[in-house]
Amino acid sequence: MSETLVEVSGVSKTVYGREILAPVSFALSTGEGVVLTGPNGSGKTTLLKILAGRDLATEGTIEVHDSLKHRAGIATVLGDPPYFEDLTVLEHLRFVCVSWGESPDTSEPERILAALKISRIQDSFPLELSSGERQLVSLAIGFIRPSELMILDEPEQRLDIERRALVAELLLDKKRNGGAVVMATHDPQFVEALADSHVALGITG
Ligand SMILES: Nc1ncnc2c1ncn2[C@@H]1O[C@H](COP(=O)(O)OP(=O)(O)OP(=O)(O)O)[C@@H](O)[C@H]1O
């Protein structure tokens, strides 16, 4: 049975008198995807940061299920994560796995790299990768840790068509396994594939 994870009610943000996020409301349950769309500057990233606890709303409330109250339940892919200069892609993924309690011998890093078809870069350093490859590594880092809710900002950025389909498939898997997804995107295929609810933001100010 699905449970409500997040309830967003009338959340908005105003900075220096300018409304950068118009009031928005939606609810999200386990196994569901909410997809945010809207023109550049309509507040998608702002809303995702508020949901992730990285920014504050000016008005409105967000109720979250107890399982999300300690942040451990929430994985975010909001731009590049910080990278260690001297750790390879595989070492980053192992580091994240072990930090979340996996055995150091886990084969999860290899599995996620294969799922995204980037096994060949496992021994490269993230800061030396192409921008699309680095986007795939930041997605891999988001997918590899346990989470009940994934928050993603334009996961399609800089990805080729084949990789977009692989990412969509991993997100669908996440939902099939009871996880929830909130994502901003400009890609209609992601909306089609993943949205149980579609929230279209607009510019008012
Ligand atoms: N800290 C801030 N201070 C002032 N203005 C901000 C701040 N953060 C964001 N903005 C402004 O808020 C508006 C919404 O930004 P946001 O990044 O949320 O849009 P977006 O919908 O994600 O856009 P895009 O599709 O281009 O990624 C923009 O006009 C931006 O300049």
UniProtKB/TrEMBL annotation:
<keyword id="KW-0067">ATP-binding</keyword>
<dbReference type="Pfam" id="PF00005">
    <property type="entry name" value="ABC_tran"/>
</dbReference>
<protein>
    <submittedName>
        <fullName>ABC transporter ATP-binding protein</fullName>
    </submittedName>
</protein>
<keyword id="KW-0813">Transport</keyword>
<feature type="domain" description="ABC transporter">
    <location>
        <begin position="6"/>
        <end position="203"/>
    </location>
</feature>
<dbReference type="InterPro" id="IPR051782">
    <property type="entry name" value="ABC_Transporter_VariousFunc"/>
</dbReference>
<keyword id="KW-0547">Nucleotide-binding</keyword>
<dbReference type="InterPro" id="IPR003593">
    <property type="entry name" value="AAA+_ATPase"/>
</dbReference>
<dbReference type="GO" id="GO:0005524">
    <property type="term" value="F:ATP binding"/>
</dbReference>
<dbReference type="InterPro" id="IPR027417">
    <property type="entry name" value="P-loop_NTPase"/>
</dbReference>
<dbReference type="InterPro" id="IPR017871">
    <property type="entry name" value="ABC_transporter-like_CS"/>
</dbReference>
<dbReference type="InterPro" id="IPR003439">
    <property type="entry name" value="ABC_transporter-like_ATP-bd"/>
</dbReference>
